[in-house]
Amino acid sequence: MSNPTNQAAYLVDKNVKPLEVRTAPYTPPGPDEIVIRTHAIAINPVDHIIQNLGGMMYTHLPYPEAMLGFDVSGEVVQVGKEVTRFKPGDRVVGEAVGTAKNRNLASHCGFQLYTVLLPRMTSHIPDTLTYEKASVIPLGLSTAACGLFQKDHLALQHPSVPAPKPTGKTLLIWGGSTSVGCNAIQVAVAAGYEVITTCSPRNFEYVKSLGAVEVYDYNSKTVVKDITRAFKGRVTAGALSIGAGAADKCLDILAGCKGDKVLSMATYPTPATPPKRFVMVQTIVTYLSGLISLWIKARRYGVRSAYIFADSLVDNEVGPMIYEQWLPKALAAGTFVPAPKAEVVGHGLGYIQRAMDINRKGVSAKKIVVTL
Ligand SMILES: NC(=O)c1ccc[n+]([C@@H]2O[C@H](COP(=O)([O-])OP(=O)(O)OC[C@H]3O[C@@H](n4cnc5c(N)ncnc54)[C@H](OP(=O)(O)O)[C@@H]3O)[C@@H](O)[C@H]2O)c1
């Protein structure tokens, strides 16, 4: 049987240029890999951050054959000879990991019709779940899982279906309506933790529907005082900070809490507004000064802190724990819902650039999706 014809949206240059759609090679799976016909992809901020800052980060990408795309769902078309969990025809969602420095393979990126996935980063989805809804899951869930479960982060008890007995501990998730936050709330509750979170008031009911017990407006002047008061009489499991300025506020809250003084940080320090001049200098200065000042503050408050690098779960026990063991069961049981909501903005690879531009302008409790 001849290989199918593949097409991809390529990132052709380190300098900002629109993605280019053209024919791409079809790559058969390695022994422990699968290939899917991608039916939906979701956009993450990192996609357009790489496009905008390509000269500064992900410098290893093989321009002009570089590709982006982390969140994919689709149908399995071919499996490697060691694969036992999947067969052609299976409906799946998975994280495409081709941009990671230790892989750096366009064949394993998501912005194409046929993507190579690793079984340990892939889950079956129920027949009732559409590809577009499922596509919002991977990078948000992976990032949340790195922060919550890795031993060098919060090292929480693992999730199960049904959820275990409550641990009696409360977790602070700053940025609950982000894609990372929506996943973190659900997986933390599934692991037996109570969750207090923050977002804009328009999303209060939504994050509560995902399992948060209390929610606060992160723009309120009294938010740190209010959350510190909410933790009185509670034992904390630590905090996960998502969003600009979140880590600093979480440190102030953890300082006054009883329990585990651990902070996992998803968002790295970046300029509050994109610089118009001296972009590289301003970005590096903000980044380094942010890292140093948060490190000093954490030491002073006796808080252990670590930045998330979402690629890390691919090569440790957390990836398979989530994608092989927990997620397929939680989706089948309906104890986990894909979140935030998918907004489909077009059909075809040609719509991916537009989808990235929409995400770049800012979204609220939603994920921008393109169907293929
Ligand atoms: N370290 C890693 O490996 C890694 C991996 C993935 C993502 N991230 C980072 O994690 C963050 C979230 O990514 P995402 O894809 O989840 O984002 P997203 O869903 O695109 O973010 C949109 C949401 O951000 C919320 N928000 C905006 N400013 C905020 C602030 N200052 N504090 C808290 N929430 C704020 C908005 O909430 P409201 O509309 O309710 O105001 C909105 O719902 C980003 O900084 C991203 O770069 C890091």
From TrEMBL:
- Which UniProt keywords are listed? Oxidoreductase
One Pfam family of this chain = ADH_zinc_N
At the top level of its lineage, which domain of life is listed? Eukaryota
Name the SUPFAM superfamilies on file: GroES-like (SSF50129), NAD(P)-binding Rossmann-fold domains (SSF51735)
Domain Enoyl reductase (ER) spans what residues? Answer: 14-337
- InterPro entries (UniProt xref): ADH-like_C, ADH-like_N, ER, GroES-like_sf, NAD(P)-bd_dom_sf, Trans-enoyl_RdTase-like
CDD domains per record: enoyl_reductase_like
Q: Which family does it belong to?
A: Belongs to the zinc-containing alcohol dehydrogenase family.
PANTHER family xrefs: HYPOTHETICAL OXIDOREDUCTASE (EUROFUNG), ZINC-TYPE ALCOHOL DEHYDROGENASE-LIKE PROTEIN C2E1P3.01
Under what name is this protein listed? Answer: Enoyl reductase (ER) domain-containing protein
Q: Which organism is it from?
A: Exophiala sideris
